[in-house]
């Protein structure tokens, strides 16, 4: 039995079909799904089988090297992450979908890197939380399928359960996994979200596409902290996205300076990827940047109280870092900024913050500012 959605309170549904499906009927259903997905705002869908043996080996090797850092959930679920039918019994296919998120109203992240007084937030987090947007659309897609075929087994996922989403998307023909570990398409780059519907409908599968990274190593060469330790190998413990979002404790001192003004996530490997010349902008209103988040002044962002942080990030992926993590990240960015009396004043106002984590990073930032005074 497969439940109808990732929400544990969703009612369970069970397929009333099975071996009765004809090949022609399944081809027709898949064509309908592709049409409905476009109407719902997805740029592409594909269908994968559930054999992920090679990806499972890669995952286990990655975990064995400790590259997941404190993300213990990556190993907590055992083989359920790489074996969809163990995670959701009855699954025989996965419908993978992608949706563009890069908005043309947002500043170019490569331009913001040079504006050291501003905070750089990963472009995916500027608008509404993509989990909510994608899950709602995928649920609508599942509803349409149910209206056409009757009760069927399914469950919707959007980065919310132990799912190898990039591996499944690659198997479904949505792109290939690049050397930076993101999914890439020749005609769309990598600025898109992924989501899945696990289902017991035996739909025709799509063919994977070839890897087109070639000899390019731009993502490895330009990673600020050297997190891409080899092609297709990312040590999350060095990744700025991990450091600013997943890590709850202190950011290692040797990685703070390379963070620059990146305060939530990092887009550098995507910025330098040649295939992103072909990236397409999103037309989704939900992904438009919220006021104050795109190119916000570091000092102003650092001054947000917890109440203001929660209010301004309501319905946003930025909530994940929490107020303490927010202040920690911005303290590092202020420490990396050129010497400025206003920066020093802002940092001093947080010197006695209740959180030891915040105090530690504020003191580090003040030390950096003092060193900048001595070495202009």
TrEMBL record:
UniProt key word Iron-sulfur: yes
Subcellular location(s) of the protein: Cytoplasm
UniProt cross-references to InterPro entries, sorted A to Z: 4Fe4S_Fe-S-bd, 4Fe4S_Fe_S_CS, QueG, QueG_DUF1730
Active site: 159 (proton donor)
Residue stretches making up the 4Fe-4S ferredoxin-type domain: 201-233
Domain of life: Bacteria
Any one GO molecular function term: metal ion binding
EC number(s) given by UniProt: 1.17.99.6
HAMAP family: QueG (MF_00916)
Name used for this protein in its record: Epoxyqueuosine reductase
Species classification: Bacteria, Pseudomonadati, Pseudomonadota, Gammaproteobacteria, Chromatiales
